[in-house]
Structures are given as structure tokens and as C-alpha cells.
Amino acid sequence: MLDRNEISRRGYLKEDFRLFHLKDSRAQTVDYHYHAFDKLILLLGGKVTYVVEGVTYFLRPWDMLLVGHDLIHRPIIDPAEPYERVVVWLGREWLERRSDPGEALSACFDTTRQRGFHLLRFDAERRLHYMQRIQQMEAAQRDRGFGAARMADTLCQQLLIDVNRDVLRSRTAQEERDSYRVDPKMEEILRYILSHLEEDLTVETLSRQFFISRYYLMHRFKAVTGYTVHQYITQKRLLRAGELIRSGVPVMKAAEQAGFTEYSTFLRAFRSTFHMSPREFR
């Protein structure tokens, strides 16, 4: 069973999208968590390190981090400097409605997920461009005049078009090795888990698959990702089952396709994680 204090869903988005401009001067600790929506984080000031699915990113001011839905992540904030950032929450249904055939606004999140690298880094000209975009969105959110909601919606779409173009142009810091840290073996194991959720995944099977000791796997996985092998696999299976259920797959079949061999185990874990039954979740 998952420890809800270590991995939990954080934040609920009732609108199509939301923009936050936040500045904290006090130290804060945020546990590992995930969201049902996609999220952009634009760092404006402070020292913060982000861990996303086992990859550690050392952010600089004006770096942008793309955190897709269901990705387990955690910020590590240095209290020595005020932490200022713009965060944009994006509803997945809204992204789908606003997309054109062959040009999904969520493509930037899909691409960074596939690459296993979620950081964008810009030159001075591009920083100014994003600053203007953010200022326009903030002004639209404060506006109460005619068409304000439509204007905010349009500006958010424009922001996503910019992000998608920058992702396609690979404006990342992936070549700057001091911008992130990754354990190649653990990254390989994480990718293997995500593509084999329906199979038998245990510490024993993984240690045999990757020719490493059971003890090393357990301790290194925890050190790199912040959670145990069992917690990670169970959480990803639950999220996969949720995706299948919402797409119309029958509950028992979704549980089986996500890798659960016992329905009662799946049901208990699902209720503990989502605080509702699979049918209510649908």
C-alpha cells in the first residue's frame, strides 16, 4: 500500500487553466507529489532544484520546467533567497479542445516526457518575449471588461504555442551537464518499468533484468527518486489504470492491463490514492 505522506496528488484544477505569480521568502518543504493536470514552472528568482521522475534539475532564473500530468516531482528550495516563480496549471480537456488536428497543444509535454528531459533554457531575447506573455496573461486575469475571459484564453493558447515551438527547436539545457543530474542505470530502469507495467515487476525481477544486486537496486532507487521500487510501480499502475478507466475501458480490464493481478488489491489501493471508487473516478 502506498504511503500517502510520500507520494500524493497535490492541487486541484477546476478551471480550464490558472496562472500563479508566487514569491516566498520563508523556507518550505514540499513532498513528492503529482498532478492530474499539466504544469509550466517559470523561475524568476531564487535557488531551487527540481526532481522530476528521478532527474534532478538545477534551475537558473528564467528557466522553464514542463511537468506533465502524473509525473512524480518535488522542488528543493534554498531558503537563502526569495523563491519567485510563475506557475501555469493547464487542464487536459482544455488543451484537447484548443488543439488542431495534428497540432496538439499538449505535444510539448508529450515530447519532454518521451525525451526524459523537461527543462527549457532561453537567451535574453526569448526571456523578454516570455516576460511579455506572462504580463499580458496577468493583466487579462485582472481585467473585468468585455471579452476578458476570451482574451486570457487566447493568450494562454499563444503561450502554449511558444512553448511547443521552443520544445521542437530543442531550446533545452540538455547539453549543459551542470544543469541536471541523472543516474543512467536508474533512468534505464524507470523507462523499463513504465513500458512493462502489465508484467511481473518486483525488485527481484528488475535486479535480474539489469544485472545488479537487489540491495543496490533498492537503496540506489530510493536515493535517486525519493521513493521505493514498490511505491513507484504501484503508483504508476494506479495512474495507468485511471487513464484507461477514463478512456472507457471496463474497470476490471483496466486493472489487469495496468498490471494488477488481484482486483481486491487494486480496489484498496485505488480508493486509498484517489479517495473514490473506480466507477466514481470515471
TrEMBL record:
PANTHER family: ARAC-FAMILY TRANSCRIPTIONAL REGULATOR
Protein name: Helix-turn-helix transcriptional regulator
Gene3D superfamilies tied to this protein: Homeodomain-like (1.10.10.60), Jelly Rolls (2.60.120.10)
InterPro entries assigned to the protein according to its UniProt record, in alphabetical order: Homeodomain-like_sf, HTH-like, HTH_AraC, RmlC-like_jellyroll
Keywords assigned by UniProt, alphabetized: DNA-binding, Transcription, Transcription regulation
Stretches of the chain forming a coiled coil according to its record: none
Matching SUPFAM superfamilies: Homeodomain-like (SSF46689), Regulatory protein AraC (SSF51215)
Domain HTH araC/xylS-type: 187-282
Superkingdom: Bacteria
